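Let's practice the habit of predicting before peeking. Look at the sequence and jot down your guess about where helices and strands might fall. Then scroll down.
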Amino acid sequence: MSSSPTPPALAALAAFPHLRAQCARALAAQAVRVAERSAQALAQPALTAALDQQISLGGGRLIALEAAPGQGLTTLICRLATERPYAFWLPHDDAGEGLAVLCAQVLALAQLLPALLPPAADRDSITLEQLLSEAGAHRPAGDPLVVLIGRRPDDQLAAQPAPFPALIPPGVVLVQACAPGEPLPLPAQARLRAADYAPTHAQLAAAAEALGCVPALAATIADAAECSLLYVRLAVGLHHSGALPQRLPRGLLALHQGWWRGLDRAGRRVATLLAAAGEPIEPVLLAGIAGIAAAELAGWLQRWQPLIEATDRRVALYHPATRIFIRDQSSDRLARAHALYVEHARARLGRQLEQLGTAADGYLVHQLARHVALSDPKTQRGAAPALATRGWAVARERVSGSMRAAAHDMAWVLRATAAQSDLLQLVRHAALSGTLAHLGCTLHPDAPAEAFEAAIAQGSARDATLRRVRAILAQTPDSYDKAQALRRLGEVCYTMRMRTSAMRMLSEALDLETPGPSRQWRDGREETLVAFARAAITIDMPQTALGITARIGHAERRGMIETEVMRWLLARGQLTRAEEVAYAIGHTAMHEWAMAEVAVGHVYAGDAARGEVVLGTLKTETAIAWARTELACEAARRGDQHAIGQLAPINNPGLLDRALAMVALALAAGGHAEAAIEAARTVEDRAVRTRALIELAQLHAPNASALLSIAADELAGLTGDERAPLVAELAAAQATAGRLEIALRTAELLAEDEERDRAQSRVAVALARAGNAADAQIVAEAIGDDDERDWAFDELARLSLARAEWDAALVLTQQIVAQEQRAHTTADVLIAWARGGHAGVAHDHARRIDLAAARMRALMVIADALVQQGQLAIVHDQIAQLADPDQRSRYQGAAAAALAGQGALTQAHDLALAIARPAEQTRALAAVAQAATPHDPALARLALAQALQASARLGRSETFRCLEWAAAAFAQLAGPELLLGAASGIDEIDSWWSS
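Done guessing? Here is the structure:
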């Protein structure tokens, strides 16, 4: 094969050694394919011209290149990538890392700075979209950046579909190869059918002659090729090897069928094993798995030479079309062939699969997880657990230098687990897969500092560039390498006189060098355990919750769940057990408060003696005061005029005053106005006493005017910080009592500034609450301070909502000056309007909110009301109008949750799967699972499996967050045993990385 020039995109990477190093394996694999196809490329001028014409129409477009397999699309892409500065991605030849290579090419071609590839670039499409957007912004008009993408592989080659950009920015044209009519992730602005630009009979005949075919046979082959360039190559080769049928079949499918019919049982077994192979395989290994002699295998391979590609003494099927044909001949989609690979590995090493070594078992090390996942269920169950172990992960790290290979393997194992019914294994494998995905996001310790230094040398802004480098570095796991990277980046910053940033990074580096897992790592696990414990409480299994809680190391977090268990027990009258749980709480303050609640529970249950015993154990004054106050208030509400006597044990004067004020209100509620007033007037602190009198007056007591007069007198002698808020409260109370003029005069006691305006705003709201909306608006309009006036109109709008005066509420929101507050209040008004039965009208108004965040919040909440009110068409129309993928994904998630809540489970599930952003898709699928659990457990299990697969690809924190969202569904589907087992599994996995 003659040498082929280096594609410009790969040549551009030569200037960025760290970029090349980050994706070296995938770069090498794609470079080999480009060289091979470019060397034999048949010119396709008509199709190329049509493509050029579409590209010239400008950026922001997706062009679909449609062709049946074998019609030369990959060859065309390789030729264009060799001749032009186009970024390219060949998914069938990318060693599983093609998206990262594509991002690196975009960085290099556009010379974006800093030239550092985010280690999580291949987990979703966001990094690629950002890079394309930046690159497109730098392109001159009429010269877009062109990105060529080969056919998307089927589910036998990738554990999950590769991410695809959710948006093609201006200045970028994306060209996607696909089968005729194949749906694409985004609508194509143009579809070019290769069949409309097919090579002529003469071109096909010439191609056959160039491959060594005599003219007569070349013409015959061209007649039968049906425009397939691959047909020509295979037919000529099969003729040379003597395997071409006597009667030349017409078309690529018939050619494969004729070849297949000529195989005996052993030949078909070898062909099937080759079709199942995930990369080129050593013939000796292939012969051993097929159970035939090496010489016999060599004979088959010699006869199949045109169908086979040999590289570095390994063999593979040359074209995906052949693999797909063989797969379609298999009744089990090659599952038996995959199982043979697994059986061979287990026969050699039994359960010690981590002892496979790359020297002799390189293929099996790389591909075993894939073969397990694609084999039959029995083989999966027998072999998958051996791959979900620390031993296998460490062995893969030892060979490859990072956890990325182990994460790739675990993605396959998780896919196999997702297809089965074992929810405990699903949780365990998801946790491990997400953890390995996170641990696999590594950078060379020198790369951030060198990329930052190079970017600054080329004129990049220091602070913005450093933020970007820090954001990329933040994707890596906390480790010694990250500490070294921070240290070196800090040293570079120090030399550039960025000393504050330098010292901060050096301090972070020191923290990372401290032995043991980081706080963030621990918090992620423990928050998940908290969710599991709460899920156990929801299914009335408090003992399970306590068992899970025992695994939580953070005392306050553990005490929070123990307190919830204690309250569950109190609510069901299990007082003794509740006391035991409260007593065992290790966090001192939470222990005291829990025991206080238990004491109150004993008294309410009629066991005052036990309540006193428990109270006697308390040492915290606030907890004691709360319990005494709670008991006294309850007694007062039941009509006990002497309830304040129960406050005698409170020794702290401040706590006693607040307790007396609360009991006074309870006495008033119990019908003892005089006792209430007496209790309030015994309060020693003037401010507390004044507030108590004002609150008593607002309970519509018959002597409200007298109480307000007394409060005014008390207020006259008050100074300090508490005077202004009490003046405002008194003025509001006076307005509520119908004494507007007095209320305004009270407000004037304050200085003519923000304090007076605050009092007037409270008066306006009090008037509205009393039903005097007209005067309320007049007072509000007269307020001088914008913030206080905005607060008043916000409250007036909400009071109008309470009266279902939707239009009036919306008008009031327009009086708010601050844009953010106005948008927030308007959103709240429209949400209430929608829930009041007018979702369509509210939606129309919500679309006009001028602040994006508030607009999206309103639209998302209103979506639920639209679904409830049967206006789903508006929801779908809104989805179509949202161009931003982040906003569209969030809205789709809200709509999916709404549909699930209304029982439209299939629609909800379909909508969730259409969400572009994995994080939002995960949340939506968890909501579908929760809603489906009582009605359709099979759908719930499917949605949970899909959610965990999507989140595990993103990383550890995203996986654990998904487990939190799904905890309640898991509890309902599989009960407490699953929760306990899942907690144990997560703990075990985390322990692997804690040393």
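How did you do? The chain has a mean pLDDT of 94.
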